[in-house]
Amino acid sequence: MDRERLSALLDRHARGEVSRDELLEALAVAPFVELGDARVDTHRALRTGVPEVVLGTGKTADQVARIAQTLAAAGGNVLITRVTPEVAAELRERLPGVEHLPVPRLAILRQAPVAPRGRGPIAVVCAGTSDLPVAEEAAAVAELFGNKVERVFDAGVAGLHRLLASLDVLRRASVVIAVAGMEGALASVVGGLVAAPVIAVPTSIGYGASLGGVAALLAMLNSCASNVTVVNIDNGFGAAYVASLVNRA
Amino acid sequence: MDRERLSALLDRHARGEVSRDELLEALAVAPFVELGDARVDTHRALRTGVPEVVLGTGKTADQVARIAQTLAAAGGNVLITRVTPEVAAELRERLPGVEHLPVPRLAILRQAPVAPRGRGPIAVVCAGTSDLPVAEEAAAVAELFGNKVERVFDAGVAGLHRLLASLDVLRRASVVIAVAGMEGALASVVGGLVAAPVIAVPTSIGYGASLGGVAALLAMLNSCASNVTVVNIDNGFGAAYVASLVNRA
Amino acid sequence: MDRERLSALLDRHARGEVSRDELLEALAVAPFVELGDARVDTHRALRTGVPEVVLGTGKTADQVARIAQTLAAAGGNVLITRVTPEVAAELRERLPGVEHLPVPRLAILRQAPVAPRGRGPIAVVCAGTSDLPVAEEAAAVAELFGNKVERVFDAGVAGLHRLLASLDVLRRASVVIAVAGMEGALASVVGGLVAAPVIAVPTSIGYGASLGGVAALLAMLNSCASNVTVVNIDNGFGAAYVASLVNRA
Amino acid sequence: MDRERLSALLDRHARGEVSRDELLEALAVAPFVELGDARVDTHRALRTGVPEVVLGTGKTADQVARIAQTLAAAGGNVLITRVTPEVAAELRERLPGVEHLPVPRLAILRQAPVAPRGRGPIAVVCAGTSDLPVAEEAAAVAELFGNKVERVFDAGVAGLHRLLASLDVLRRASVVIAVAGMEGALASVVGGLVAAPVIAVPTSIGYGASLGGVAALLAMLNSCASNVTVVNIDNGFGAAYVASLVNRA
Amino acid sequence: MDRERLSALLDRHARGEVSRDELLEALAVAPFVELGDARVDTHRALRTGVPEVVLGTGKTADQVARIAQTLAAAGGNVLITRVTPEVAAELRERLPGVEHLPVPRLAILRQAPVAPRGRGPIAVVCAGTSDLPVAEEAAAVAELFGNKVERVFDAGVAGLHRLLASLDVLRRASVVIAVAGMEGALASVVGGLVAAPVIAVPTSIGYGASLGGVAALLAMLNSCASNVTVVNIDNGFGAAYVASLVNRA
Amino acid sequence: MDRERLSALLDRHARGEVSRDELLEALAVAPFVELGDARVDTHRALRTGVPEVVLGTGKTADQVARIAQTLAAAGGNVLITRVTPEVAAELRERLPGVEHLPVPRLAILRQAPVAPRGRGPIAVVCAGTSDLPVAEEAAAVAELFGNKVERVFDAGVAGLHRLLASLDVLRRASVVIAVAGMEGALASVVGGLVAAPVIAVPTSIGYGASLGGVAALLAMLNSCASNVTVVNIDNGFGAAYVASLVNRA
Amino acid sequence: MDRERLSALLDRHARGEVSRDELLEALAVAPFVELGDARVDTHRALRTGVPEVVLGTGKTADQVARIAQTLAAAGGNVLITRVTPEVAAELRERLPGVEHLPVPRLAILRQAPVAPRGRGPIAVVCAGTSDLPVAEEAAAVAELFGNKVERVFDAGVAGLHRLLASLDVLRRASVVIAVAGMEGALASVVGGLVAAPVIAVPTSIGYGASLGGVAALLAMLNSCASNVTVVNIDNGFGAAYVASLVNRA
Amino acid sequence: MDRERLSALLDRHARGEVSRDELLEALAVAPFVELGDARVDTHRALRTGVPEVVLGTGKTADQVARIAQTLAAAGGNVLITRVTPEVAAELRERLPGVEHLPVPRLAILRQAPVAPRGRGPIAVVCAGTSDLPVAEEAAAVAELFGNKVERVFDAGVAGLHRLLASLDVLRRASVVIAVAGMEGALASVVGGLVAAPVIAVPTSIGYGASLGGVAALLAMLNSCASNVTVVNIDNGFGAAYVASLVNRA
Fold it and tell me: With contacts defined as CB-CB under 8 Å, which chain H residues touch E28?
């Protein structure tokens, strides 16, 4: 409910086309559907330009399925993240046509064509094979949002030649998503090689002093490359979401 | 030295216009000026599209001045961050025409006009008066990089009406920089109100359990708004740098 | 054993109605029942005005059951928290009539009517569907203590309209319990919207930099709203307990 | 701007008493005074029932003084916390009649009588002499808000008899504020002795493993007494604020 | 090999009763039995006055059994700590007569009478029923070392009367072991009540901000009672070991 | 006020020698002197067998002086720890005859002879010259409490021969206090060399990853020698206090 | 692709023996095999003198097997670390002749003789039986790299005689690898006893305040012995790798 | 006192050339000079092959001077680290001929020629100008120990061309010391570029989430390059010490 719509509404009220009660109702009513334990935001696409996504973490299979069904009823594409095998089974039963990608732990219901968008490709680069689930989550989500995605996987900084071999891919991207665990140095090195914004995703890959991804997170936050911003550990989805916003024409 | 220039160089070498020694030299020579204790990157603007900036932290007044002089000799605008009063005095003596902004702790030498750029304004919103030095650093840097900046200061979430009063400013921005210390909730609330990317800057403002800004940093990294990315604590410069990249036409 | 009762006791001793040994005994005897591995406090209701509660964490099913039986024998209502399925099974067998609520992980034996009490309703607001077990623990406990409870669930700050749609519920509450994981911003936003005390409950919902709820905990402790106090991570029971004390007429 | 006032405003608009532009203005205008670097909330007392307070932390002496002057112009009492000697000097010059309390680091401008309020006294108990500045901040603020305050100072748990000697004071309080550094055990012990809500304030007093008050903070959050809630380290003001809300008739 | 024995050895060497090679050998040989992956210290009792104990943590069932058998061959009593059910089964098979105590996770092979020792009883006090495994480990170990032990269980500080009811037990002990999780306040309170040394054992009981026992550990290290020292989290064995040393006549 | 004295008091009350009001008074009155901001415990020596000590940390020079004067009036020896030069100056002025030891930061007023006590000497061993202030605090305090003290300073584990050269001193001690910063390994090595209890004092000496003494603290808590207990970082006083208790005949 | 090879390549290009396209290709091509989700570095041995190793952590059994097969095809020896039973089963099926060492969790395919190398033996010393998996990983890897290895196991500092009994082994080593959990003191003690470099490996063995190996890690980083460097917790492989480099003739 | 010398001593004792008392004395006497508060190790060069160094941290100017004088009397070169201006002044007065290097905070007394040693040069590479004090400490110490040192300063990974321009210097080094603050990525990148061992030195340079160097430390410990080991934050001396040992012929 922005200022312009409010102004229009008040005009119609002034002309008697909208009653005071209707006006109050319109001002108060929220663009969500009440499910009891969840309030599903069916207007989010309208407000933010990207379809609502169901974050699977911490929800029961039944909750995920009900929310997904509510969103599916609106006719758009539906994306569910952090899909466990249990949730996937539940979704396949209750959401016909849903597609399950086990590596990035995503479920997608495609009901509408995805229009290509974006000023250029989004490059997703990751440091090691172990970072693949997070990197692939970022790549698949960015594709679903209409972006062209180029993958550069297993290109950690200790084998710089593997990274430099894909330098042209990185340089022609309009945004780069850099995914790395352990020491997280990939973000700084990539940041220094490209002029585009780099969204860094620390992963929980590592052991001992990696502290579940905190080492990589701190490294990325302290990047000496000024074009780096950071999202939460393992948050491939968030990186793709922001990259998609940045890539908008 | 990118692939195209390498290709051209090799062509010229093949035609005998460039000797083998000259070629080797060209391949090895780095686009920086050696100052002994610093290697000043005079070609960075070329590579990344933004002028080199001198990060003042951890450098002596003499080091900052020498690096700034080297960059100034190249004729462009020069920006120095984290300028202490001592450094400012040194700069005023050795860099005629330099301008010192004490609140955001910046020094600027303007030698070239700043062309307006960017798809829209960058909004800089901060939670409290105490966050002002960081917020103003972000705002002043973004302006120096050619962006139109709109400031919304002292608009913390505990007085939501102060934030909502500036909702139109936030909504018309192409990027929002959200600066907050203490609990850092501003990033999530702003993230939910706008469709643009939000760059969150935690500040070290707070006491006790704020742990020098770590509380705000963690909050921002865990934002439930998907359009939020984060930079280091008090890193107003970094936020402006990325916002400027994102705002490019 | 407060000063008044001590005074009375001493009077009776002085009048010879109570022997020295009886007096010593009365002074030393503690109002608890010794179970060997537990000392069950059967007089707590007397001392604090709220029935004793069995905290299920860290106790074996047998220990929980024995303590609950001892308390049940006193005739009042008995509440057991953090009830695992194993404990629930044990309780159903040994405590006839016990009721098990799986979502908030509570078991309740109702043996006495609960008198309505409190100056007004207690509002329990939570940020996401995943916070529901903790929020529902707070709500159910507050109801068992005689309070009217109003629930506002899945109202996180990134969708501010969902929260504002329930603003009237929040404003008419005499105490608000705000339950949130991730960045925990809900406490500050709600704190700024109401005049009543807000009891913030961080939850362990989140991943990566949420550090098992520590991020939300720190955010809430640093709240810029002055009417916020905090309890331990996931401590819905504690929040309800204090809210109930505050709500007393 | 609550729902009732909105409804009234819309009625007046419908009757033509308020123009559309006036209505829009009323809806948008925020109850604050714009000072450039601060937005002073002059209506806060109206909204929350307690006067606005200037938190001195992180503000320059000039900023504190300007905000205080703005608030003073509204005619009520003004309270400034965390007042350094520099700020105190500035305030004495620019805010005639201001009173400076150096131990609790407060400045107070009394312009209106403080009406006694509250269901009973608020007890402020602290563990050691070193905790006095925080405890006295809590006590003085609670008094300024109209409460009767009873102080029990230097009553740490290692000398239990010093605490028990004041048991009657603690028991007749309607709220207890427990202030302690080091191991913070005072909160749990007091919590077990009284039926009233206990607001625990960890202090930064201690050394080594006290980690600047984090040890006491963690202890208080883990209190085995269910009537304890916690505020930030050294936050005597916040404790008094909430205690005052709880104590309202 | 202490100085006296060295002196005697050198005398015998001087008299020709011990050859140079024998002397060298005696100086080098260590009083342990090499098992390949373990070096079992069969002379420890001699050196330190307390029998060798097998710490079960991090060893395979086979390793524990082999070490225990080697120690058993020396004829003394053998104590194994942190005995998992798997290790217990292995021990029962290979170490006839071994006794398994499941609550404190101990296994004991009694082959020699335990002589009573100690200046007085050791009191073991714990805060809650959940702390029982650690408290019972301390108590059982202290008994095996020949001490008289008095148990005061479930006597947390939030129900001070339960603790004070056992005050005489605490006061007549020559050492007190205080076992507590959560906020660990028991150590300070007990420390203030007795004149004897108090050995504090934090336990990992708690949740959320207890951080696996770190909250209790920090509290105990910061105890305002000067007679408190601390051992590692859940280290009931270590507390009993030191208490036994302190209690020696 | 222990059970025996209570019993005697009640007898006298029964015989009419003590009135009810006198009895109540005796039960309530605490053995401390109220100074307003401090409650000075003049009976502590009676209760715990060791003179009251003024911990200087966090108190103003005036507070320290007033408390010391109150204790001095009782005629015994007075010990003040953590004495800054400012406090020392204040004490010299107001407490004639006070002695100031700058290295261990102690002030001592000797008014009574110190009777020798203890089963044997207390050895104080420290790792490096930098640990000397803490080690000397422990040594001087132990001496003031009547113990014979033997110092082994600058005997870190990286030069094991320096430690072993004093092995006989360590072995004949009835308690050892091991003081070390950095990696804190001294406690484990000494613990393995002696049969007596070892009280480990981590110091804040070190830099970087020593984290202000936390590294040494953690090492000492994890000691593989079972006869080691730990006190807070830099707490030389506490170590001496406990060592003195342990050393009692 | 080092400078010399580049120079030679350019010469051949200048002589027309290598076309411009071939030259470009040679400059760009990376010495790895693309497997889709992994880029296997078949030239690493050439670059660094040690065979490529497959780090098993975080990879699926299928990924490990495919990478191992690709490396095996090159004819050299292949080493896989952190081999779980599942991975071991997969490898046995797909990599005939592979050898599985369960204690150090290694798999080795021997296809080429290992030439003895190194200036002297590498000593691997560990503190306790529980540290054996990490110590044995270091020892076995060092042997596979051609070094002579001497093992000193279960020689913790609390039983110094067990360590000193192997002093000659330690002193004749050209590098020492010191493996310890808990307080990690072994590194400092060994560091002080030998002149050779000591590579310290903290292990995650311990409980409570060992914080998963962080205590030992911090201790080792703060070692007062200057010849100690540190690798990640449980990183036996890394220690052996560096020890092997240091031991090169 | 190693085994061989012990054997010889025992022979002489057997032949009557050394009395039993002399033998005992020789076995006990430590090769250090007792200064009261320090035990100066004058035989360290003998034992470890490198001259004793005075670590300046935590010592008073007087202590440093006395220790340095004792060492100087032995005639070798003396190195003092972490020299503050105060200590430098004291040394200049009491140690004629001492040389003070302010940037690396070293003082050196050259009394003997430094023989060139080492298999090759040691390269010291640092990330930024701010890391210079630590890098220069490493370089100057390595030179004093007889090594040839090559410096590559201000070569952070965000400007990879600056690092690659010095690739030949790095590749011909027999050991590389990599010094970096902030994200510490330099260690991993250098580790991947060279075959030699890399000793990583995290520095405390950075702000906010660098946590005083902990971010760089964690990154280096998690390096994906296997040839990297780590020393304490800012420990340039330690890195040079180990590098020197590794570089020995």
Answer: 3
State the burial class of residue E123 (Cβ atoms within 10 Å of its Cβ: 0-12, 13-18, 19+): buried
What is the rounded distance in angstroms from the CA atom of residue H34 to the CA atom of residue B5? Answer: 68
Backbone angles phi, psi at C45, to 5 degrees: -55, -45
pLDDT at D222 over 50: yes
Residue B63 token pair = 């080091």
CB spacing of H188 vs A157 below 8 angstroms = yes
- Residue B28 burial (10 A CB sphere; 0-12, 13-18, 19+): middle
Pairing state between β C39-40 and C53-55: unpaired
Which chain E residues have a beta carbon less than 8 Å from that of C53? none
Q: How far is C237 from chain A (nearest CA, A)?
A: 19
Question: What distance in Å separates the CA atoms of residue A55 and residue C174, rounded to the nearest whole number?
Answer: 33
C-alpha H1: how far from its chain's center? 24
- Write out the H or E segment, with its range, that includes residue A228: strand A228-230
DSSP H121: P
Annotate chain B with DSSP letters as a single string: --HHHHHHHHHHHHTTSS-HHHHHHHHH--SSEE-SS-EE-TTHHHHHSS--EEE-TT--HHHHHHHHHHHHTTTS-EEEES--HHHHHHHHHHSTT-EEETTTTEEEE--S-----SSSPEEEEESSGGGHHHHHHHHHHHHHTT--EEEE-S--GGGHHHHHTTHHHHHH-SEEEEEE-TT-THHHHHHHH-SS-EEEEE-S---GGGGGGHHHHHHHHT-SSTTEEE--TT-HHHHHHHHHHHT--
Q: Which residue in the set F129, F165, F210 is minimally distant from H59, CB to CB?
A: F129
Which residue among B130, B132, B155 sits closest to D57, beta carbon to beta carbon?
B130
Structure confidence at residue E2 (pLDDT): 43
* pLDDT higher than threshold 90 for residue D31: no
Would the CB atoms of A30 and C165 count as touching at under 8 Å? yes
For residue range F163-217, what is the model confidence (pLDDT) as tens digits? 888 888 999 999 999 999 999 999 999 999 999 999 999 999 999 999 999 999 9
Q: Is G191 helix (H, G, I), strand (E, B) or coil?
A: helix
Count each helix (H run) and each strand (E run) in chain A, helices first: 11, 11
Model ipTM? Answer: 0.85
Partner-chain residue, chosen from H132, H165, H207, that has the shortest CB–CB distance to B57: H207
What local confidence, expressed as pLDDT, does residue C143 receive?
94
Tokens coding G4: 């010399």
For the ranges A42-46, A117-121, G197-201, H168-172, the lowest mean pLDDT is seen at A42-46
Q: What's the CA gap between C240 and C136, in Å, rounded? A: 10
Q: Does the structure show a pLDDT above 50 at H49? A: no
Q: How many CB atoms lie within 10 A of CB A138?
A: 30
pLDDT given for residue E42 in this prediction: 52
D214/E218 CB distance under 8 A: yes
pLDDT value for F149: 97
Q: How far is CA F18 from CA A221, F15, F24, in A?
A: 72, 8, 10
The C-alpha angle with vertex H169 and arms to H168 and H171, in degrees rounded to 5, equals 60
Structure token digits, residue C218 = 């720190």
CA-derived radius of gyration, chain F:
21
Q: C129, A63: Cβ pair inside 8 Å?
A: yes
One-character DSSP codes across D152-179:
E-S--GGGHHHHHTTHHHHHH-SEEEEE
- Distance separating the N- and C-terminal Cα atoms of chain E: 25
Can you tell me the mean pLDDT for G126-149? 94
Q: How far apart are CA C228 and CA C178, in angstroms?
A: 9
Helix axes D132-144, D236-247, angle to 10 degrees: 40
pLDDT of amino acid F76 = 81
- Show residues of chain B in contact with H210, CB under 8 Å: 232
8 A C-beta contact, residue B169 and residue B180: no
